[in-house]
Model the fold of this input.
Amino acid sequence: MKPKAVVLLSGGLDSATAAAQAIADGYELIALSFRYGQRHERELQAASKIAQAFHIEEHQVMEVNLSQWGGSVLTDQATELPTEGVKPDVIPPTYVPGRNTVFIALGLSLAEVRGAEAIYLGINAIDYSGYPDCRPEYLAAYQHLASLSSKVGVEGLAPKLIAPLVLDSKADIVRRALRLGVPIEMTWSCYQGGTEPCGLCDSCRIRDRALIEAGRSDLATVTGQEFYRKEAGGSSPMS
Done:
């Protein structure tokens, strides 16, 4: 019997790749997604498709409404999404206060109940958007908390928090996703809803650049390809 792991599945490229890595590592997965008051349902639809593509039998979707007090453009429909690009050393308005802390806590709860040995996270500290809860030191502190905050932790069996992408560049994440057979076209990273990614928001820009650098410009938005050509002086890698 395979050991179990919980994967926090947002529907984006990173979480899908983390899920694929967990499967490659020999785990039977339980997927956990959240309806947290985000601007759209598109990413949850993507999470459902990815769970089905990976033959994950249990996919929990929890209601955790973080939009009640605002604090982020991702949970406040009245604010405009940033499109000027990510600035170094500046935490952008897309940061959702407490999101990862709450999500991991609920993942630990589910893991303890289901007897899961690990929780896979798609967090990334390299080409990330400046979020403080995507750093290795945050993850290490949370692992210590996991060992103190539960029955299994006291027994020395706290689930391992595994973030296989934490030190990967975004392009390396795309390359890993391709190696692992992730259906990248099913994933959704755009901060907007709708049927097609906007290509303008920070998340789209980071994703499109990585796809192009990894040799898969065919999966990038047209707008993203145009941005890249301008930045590269008129040329882009072939897909």
